[in-house]
Amino acid sequence: MSGVEHLIRLDDRTVLWAEELGNPSAPALLLVMGANASGLTWPDALVDRLAQRHRVIRYDHRDTGRSSRVFAERPYAIRDLADDAVAVLDALDVDRAHVVGMSMGGVLVQLLLLDHPDRLLSATVLATAGLGVGLAAPGGGPAELPGPSPVLLEHWASMGEDREREGELAWRVEHWRLLAGDVLPFDPGGFRALEEAVMAHSGEVRGPVAHALADQSGLDRGPELAGNRVPTLVVEAPEDPINPPPHAANLVATIGAARLVTIPGMGHALPPQVHGPLAAAIEAHTAAVDDLGR
To answer: Which partner from 3, 159, 163, 281 sits 20 to 30 angstroms from 224, CA to CA?
Structure first.
């Protein structure tokens, strides 16, 4: 399914790339990807499935994809990226949207629940940690919740290094292999094709690292989420090597109006095997909210 592309100007130096697909009159669904990841990291097949019932919007964070590279000259905080999501909605004349966030995108969605609940019809977060927990903890976070696997941390140590195209693609495919977990079959060719598309979209070989360097202050707001009233779906990825169980259960206990769905075999990746169950869970969640609004 082909989409309509937009360039959204935030200021004199910053432009965000966005794309919308599906029926423009359908309820809007904003996809918020994780750290250092282009909006194209949302697989086309999953986006097309969601676009059958929604006006789907995906976009590139600052310093990813076709959006402006500004961090080196104008450093920003992770919390600023949540405001970018609102700017995308504003630019596309969306008053309220269903919002889905993965990984760091899930952290940004939690900030939206706190600061912009009037712009959200519903929220879905997956493969993520709560505010003030894990990688979203400026000062560390609860010791009882596990952090990223040591093997993944070792791989991250070489993130952003200068590599030739083939070397960079190999690094990214191996990254996805580690992220995907050990339960579902891993298709290196499929993830290579995804990263080739991302690389062509961005016009750069070197992978982005800005979000790993960005200020994390202002994320320690987990207790505030107890007052949330926006219907929220927490998707548990039991094989996630970054935010493994019980992170999802902790989120449900933290966020008011939240419920849990588990996608068996899912890790910190979106292979074809999870597209159907994940889309079905999101669609059921958004449909229930839309039905209440009629």
So the answer is: 281
